[in-house]
Design brief:
The chain has 252 residues and is mainly beta. It is built from 3 helices and 22 strands. It has 2 domains: 8-154, Chondroitinase Ac, Chain A, domain 3 (Sandwich); 161-251, no CATH class. A hairpin with a 5-residue loop joins strand 4 and strand 5 (50-53).
């Protein structure tokens, strides 16, 4: 499910209503389908996507990579959430009225109100469409076509992202401790991607549980420090909140 922000400023901003949670069927990695039983508004527990439908519908959707659509963003736009390919199975697309895309942006940080749009990619071309509403966690869009679609903001806007820090501990046979530290936006899809990466690494990693809380990520340089002193690899990293970052701390 969507990880709610702990940002005190955003708690005062317009919050998204609580919708009926639905658990999708996972067809393959980042490909899902969910049976919506009737007219209403439903939130996917795996991706945070919200669907408003006028009747019963089977919705099939995939989380895509922005790299495949980066040519349409040029220098004027940047992603503000995930891009998704959505389809309604064996019914007219009009039964799906609205899609709410989760985002991780802090709405109260900029000096000026953030301006969201939606990029719609179809047949090798792209359209930029207006949004209907924006809350502290979602961008609402009125469906016009079933194509790869995702929220964007103008690239000149300075933004901060709500993020999370995930820490895993690895111990080798020489009694050395290595801590894997990940930064990601506070959405379950990115957190799940990190967990899958950890599981597929073949290493015995133990998750370190911390008290609930979050951080705000800027697209800048980050440096990690440890106490007691350890060797940090890499020593300095550039962080883009839409990419997964891992740092390592080796303590002897």
């Amino acid at each position: 499910m969507l990880i709610k922000s702990h940002c005190e400023k955003c708690k005062a901003a317009q919050q998204s209503p609580e919708y009926e949670k639905v658990t999708p069927r996972n067809n393959s990695k980042w490909s899902f389908e969910v049976q919506l039983e009737g007219e209403g508004t439903y939130e996917c527990s795996a991706t945070g996507l919200v669907f408003e439908v006028s009747e019963q519908a089977l919705v099939r959707y995939s989380v895509l990579s922005w790299s495949e659509s980066s040519e349409f963003l040029e220098d004027s736009w940047r992603p503000a959430g995930s891009i998704n390919d959505v389809d309604v199975v064996n019914k007219d697309s009009s039964v799906l009225k609205f899609i709410h895309f989760p985002h991780s942006l802090c709405l109260t940080e900029p000096e000026h109100e953030l301006s969201f749009s939606v990029l719609l990619v179809k047949g090798g071309y792209a359209n930029i469409e207006s949004t209907v509403d924006v809350t502290a966690s979602h961008v609402k869009w009125r469906l016009s076509s079933l194509s790869p679609v995702g929220p964007i903001i103008p690239s000149h806007q300075h933004v901060k992202h709500h993020g999370v820090v995930l820490v895993y501990k690895e111990q080798d046979h020489q009694e050395q401790f290595c801590f894997h530290v990940f930064l990601a936006s506070n959405h379950e899809s990115e957190i799940q991607a990190i967990e899958e990466q950890v599981l597929s690494s073949g290493k015995k990693l133990i998750k370190i549980y911390k008290s609930a809380g979050g951080c705000r990520l800027e697209e800048k340089y980050y440096q990690l420090k440890s106490e007691p002193e350890g060797k940090i690899i890499p020593s300095v990293c550039v962080v883009n909140p839409f990419n997964l970052l891992c740092m390592y701390i080796i303590l002897q």
